[in-house]
Amino acid sequence: MSYKVFIDGAEGTTGLKIHEYFQKRSDIELIYIDADKRKDLEERLACVKKADVSFLCLPDGAAKEIAAAAPADCRILDTSTAHRTDSSWVYGMPELCREQRELIRNSNRVAVPGCHATGVILLTRPLIESGIVGRDYNFSAFSLTGYSGGGKKMIAQYESEARSGIRQGSEDPLVSPRQYGIAQMHKHLPEIIAASGMSAKPSFIPVVADYYSGMQVIVPVKGAGTIEEVRRVFREYYEGQPMVSVVESADDGGFIAANRLAGTNRLEIAVDGSDENIILTATYDNLGKGASGAAVQNMNIMLGIEETKGLI
Question: Looking at 47, 57, 74, 115, which residue is catalytic?
């Protein structure tokens, strides 16, 4: 059986990656739109109506426009920020709780999680659900990403010919990791709060560095019990999940590389540190489980296909 799929915004980083996944699948028939009609709402709507599932890989405003115009029975996956906290949409994180996968399967409107948010939520939700920490716990999260997370404009900036041969120690600021979201108003914060169960806004420190893809989210926790108790909570919470696993350690000779799962669609959680200071780490690909891979995983669930098809 084959399925018709439309990618609205197929020229963006997320859309291109989704398209790449489908080149290896015989069960997906892509619906294409003429280049000169990519911003024509009626033409795009016609494609959405033909498709079994449509992906919105668009800026928030454009995603809201077409989602509002599309008939209710059209199945849509939105990869933008526009609908992630909208109660009429299902949050597209199958591992969030026991009911989430079934909610995704039965929904016509699914919002794909943000890349940073994915790691923070998966590291904090089990702690809150288990009661190890309260909803008002003072969480902080550090997130390191490759520059592909910034989209085509940032990719072009980092990969420009003018930077060819640049070495550490130069005056080029791009050779150094760069913190952003300094005002603590990052666009992923609302979904982090909503999906994790937090009642208090966390301190969130995102950093972009000079490598293409791969992500590492770190959440320190104090007063949450022993390492083994916390590991047990995470193992039980994510038991049987095909794309999320809890590993004994991600330590590679005293280091955990942020790009260790680049090019994959998996996410691994490690619980390290000491009983006094526990360090939770999630590593994954910001373009894989952090974006396009997660979108395809959700599509598979919605269509009743094997969840991991085309992803592992």
Answer: 115
